[in-house]
Design goal:
Length: about 300
Amino acid sequence: MPVWTIYKHTNKAIVNGKENGKVYIGQTVKTMMNRWKNGNGYEHNKHFSAAIKKYGKENFSHEVLTFCGTQETADQIEAYFIAKYNSTNKENGYNKIEGGRGNCIKSEEMKISLRRFSPEEEQKIIIEYIKIPISINRFSKIIHFDRKCIKSLLQRNNIHIWTKEEYPNWIRNNPKGRKHSEESKQKIKKSKIGKNYYNKIETDQIKRIIELYTIEKISPTKISSLYNVSIGTIYNVLKKNNIDRDKESHIKYLPNKGSFIKGQKAHNKIEWTDEQMKEILDLSISCYSLSKKYNCSETPFYKIRNKKNK
């Protein structure tokens, strides 16, 4: 005579200093551990199998609740324990249905997702699915219906099911994606009123940035390094304040460690004094250390030394 085992798996993993405590109630004619299959026996329940992979099979405890002599009794007792532990609630457990096999009682969420579509609903689903290439799994989550029901609906109506190869083609041809409705555009505008989008640059700093660019003729690159923000942020500040970018009128380097001549090549920008030339020609000092001292590349020092050697 077969014997049905009603069992419970409990998640014992510690999360934020507390035990997870979620349970799974099941029944089997095998032994409980044979049903467990070293954590691999619940692939049909994605919620539970994902939890086993996430927390590790070693963090689950196993308990036999009772034994039954018939399938009908096992269905009733399984449903009783599922209701007792409220394990169909995602916050408490991993059960998808309210217990039993065959004529099992389904949860309200399962009933909604598995019910048949009306003709009007079928048309709406087909129209929405045709609009954008998307996987059936993702589409089912958006409209809150079972994935298998949607797939059978599409196959029944001879609707082409999007493949992975078609996703990048659609993105390439439609780079902007879906367009916002007028209502959503107005909501976005209202949400941005009074907010500063200059990466936390204060109003006084914005005035100073404008002064540095327009009056002192300092380049956006140097200003971005002074305020530790991206150069794009500085460009946004100038654009928002209707300031034109005049590249030719700005110095690329500040004359703090030597005078820079505009329009010449990089290695000819510095006018060297006699004392600096003596230091450059001193072979005991490396070109690397000179480049660090004068804030430029090593090229001019190599060229000066090569000319003297010739």
